[in-house]
Amino acid sequence: MNDVNRHKKIMDTISGVSILAFPVMLLVGFLLHPDIVSFEIVHTPEQLVRNFRGNTIWHVGHLIVAFAIPFIIFAVMHFMHILREKGLWYGIVGGVAGIFGSVALGLDKGSLCLILSGFDTLPDEQFVGLIPYLQVIIDKAGLLVVNWLFLLIPIGVIIQTIGLIKEKYIRRWQGIVIIIGLLLLINPDIEIISTVGAVFMIAGFYPLGIKILKRSGGS
Fold first, then answer.
1. What phi and psi values does residue 60 have, to the nearest 5 degrees?
2. From CA 39, how far away is CA 190, in angstroms rounded?
3. Which residues span the domain enclosing 23?
């Protein structure tokens, strides 16, 4: 096997694993959220504190979602690479959106996971005085507003999925299932909806990930 073929097989293996892994990691992260079946949206610091104070599982869930980011980037870059004909611009535009959205998701999890986990280590007498200031995180005040750009991930992958359908790289039913899952992820505040979205994505992406792994000889 020459170096070019070896490199292609390695990249296909990474891509296949990434396409299979990232929706599963998102699902696990969502499932670890407290009160997952609640439709309550966090508007106050007190609600946020009830979620994360003394709740290691909540922090771990956000950390898992953060670690899904490299796999999301590998996946959208693979789609950019394979969409060359009718789906060329779908691959490029969707890929750029997905990568920028992934960076924003990293910033979002930095504030929700890393910073809040640090606050959680404070003793009660210090933590109580901090509670009112948590409103800035809820409101995404200041430059935290950039965190909303994580919505570019589902938007970008929806665009790429349309390209994959156009080039007949995936079946129409797969594309529809993936798009439904991504649309459900656009609602970031109700965990049960995001969880259902991740399940749809797993169902849609699974055949594609397995196909790529078989082609690479990784499965």
1. -65, -40
2. 6
3. 3-216
Angle at 74 between CA 72 and CA 79, to 5 degrees: 95
Which long-range contacts (C-beta less than 8 Å, at least 24 apart) are formed by 36-43?
36/191, 36/192, 36/195, 37/192, 38/191, 38/192, 39/190, 39/192, 41/189, 41/190, 42/138, 42/189, 43/138
Cα–Cα distances in angstroms (integers) from residue 181 to residues 5, 136, 157, 159, in the given order: 34, 30, 11, 13
What the block records as the tokens of 86 is: 């009718």
For residue range 93-140, what is the model confidence (pLDDT) as tens digits?
999 999 999 999 999 988 888 899 999 999 999 999 999 999 999 999
Instruction: Say if CB 33 and CB 65 are below 8 A apart.
Output: no
Which amino acid is present at 87?
A: G
Kindly report the pTM of this predicted structure.
Answer: 0.91
Q: Quote the number of domains for the chain.
A: 1
Q: What is the DSSP string of 1-66?
A: --HHHHHHHHHHHHHHHHHHHHHHHHHHHHHTSTTTT--PPP-SHHHHHHHHTT-HHHHHHHHHHH
